[in-house]
Write a structure and sequence with these properties.
Strand order of the largest sheet: 9-8-10-11-7-12
Largest sheet: 6 strands, parallel
Shape: globular
Number of strands: 12
């Protein structure tokens, strides 16, 4: 794949030349809003003329802009879209310091029937690679970091590719202040609203009629954790969401459901435990008991990985500061 060429003109001046003019209007954005966002975030000046962009600013910032524009242009060359969210993701990764010995995050994507999903932080890229490489993965971190969304995307992609036969999505039925018993209807009517985020993720990956067919045929199952007892889940991609609200007994029960040719992902946020006071979270207990066990991998997200509205990142950091960064309520 051809990428822009970069020529040095001066210490704080860079020129990027692009080889496909048809992609530039998307790269620049309506009224050059993508370029404006890059200028604002990295404190540089961008000037476009024809198929060339001049970057002026501090040396470190100018180099970061080169990386951001190369990444976004690479997305366009591979057929992916570029919007403000993608610009923000590229900027986020450009600002993240690289651990010693680690190169830039590779271009990767997860293909589902409705969309092609790419990581929006280095940690998300590591997470996707971990999901590909491991049978049991724990994903920890605050809301908005993509823990469950990316796991569902990987599950759908693997089912569509025939690598697993079914998807099982589960949550512990613990209320966060509400009382499910007062809701009208039968058991399914009561628990479906609580499982709604999992349905939403599915509908983001697959057409509605396909989701309905898969649910009807039990190729996809969305159920409370209590429904897992006594089962062996083979040839399946199994996700336990909101796992911080499991008890130690429930967590052991769930983890031992893993069958042949199965993948299991456990997601949770240890700062959002809704269990009764004094009761140990099954997620915290599992992390302690299983530390160092071969074949199990853990990915930890922070507020820096939040990929929702920028204000969500500030909200998460504010609450972390208020609680002193404690993992328990």
């Amino acid at each position: 794949m051809a990428i822009p060429t970069v020529q040095d003109s001066a210490e704080a001046l860079r020129y990027l030349t692009f080889d496909d003019n048809a992609l530039l209007s998307v790269l620049y954005g309506d009224h050059d809003r993508n370029l404006a966002r890059i200028e604002q975030q990295l404190e540089v000046s961008l000037t476009s003329r024809g198929n060339q962009i001049a970057v002026a600013g501090p040396e470190v910032s100018a180099e970061a802009v080169v990386g951001v524009l190369n990444q976004l242009y690479g997305r366009l060359k591979s057929g992916l879209s570029v919007g403000l969210a993608d610009v923000d993701a590229a900027l986020r990764m450009a600002k993240e310091p690289l651990p010693d010995g680690e190169g830039s995050a590779p271009m990767m994507e997860v293909r589902t029937p409705k969309r092609r999903i790419t990581p929006r932080s280095r940690n998300q890229a590591r997470y996707l690679q971990t999901l590909m490489d491991n049978e049991l993965v724990f994903a920890l971190g605050p809301a908005g970091t993509g823990k469950t969304y990316l796991a569902v995307a990987m599950a759908v992609a693997m089912m569509e590719a025939g690598k697993v036969d079914r998807i099982v999505l589960s949550r512990p039925a613990v209320e966060a202040g509400e009382r499910l018993g007062f809701l009208p209807g039968d058991l399914r009517d009561k628990v479906d609203p609580y499982l709604r985020p999992l349905y939403d993720a599915l509908h983001d990956m697959m057409p509605g009629e396909k989701v309905a067919r898969r649910l009807e045929s039990d190729d996809i199952e969305v159920a409370p954790l209590a429904f897992m007892r006594g089962r062996t889940l083979a040839n399946a991609f199994v996700i336990l969401d909101e796992a911080q609200n499991t008890t130690a007994v429930q967590m052991k029960m769930f983890l031992t459901r893993l069958g042949e040719n199965a993948r299991m992902v456990v997601t949770g946020d240890l700062s959002q435990i809704d269990l009764p006071a004094g009761q140990t979270s099954g997620l915290a207990d599992a992390l302690r008991v299983l530390e160092g066990v071969k074949g199990i991998s853990t990915v930890r997200f922070t507020a820096a990985d939040v990929v929702r509205h920028e204000l969500v990142t500030r909200i998460v950091r504010a609450y972390d500061g208020e609680s002193g960064g404690s993992d328990q309520r």
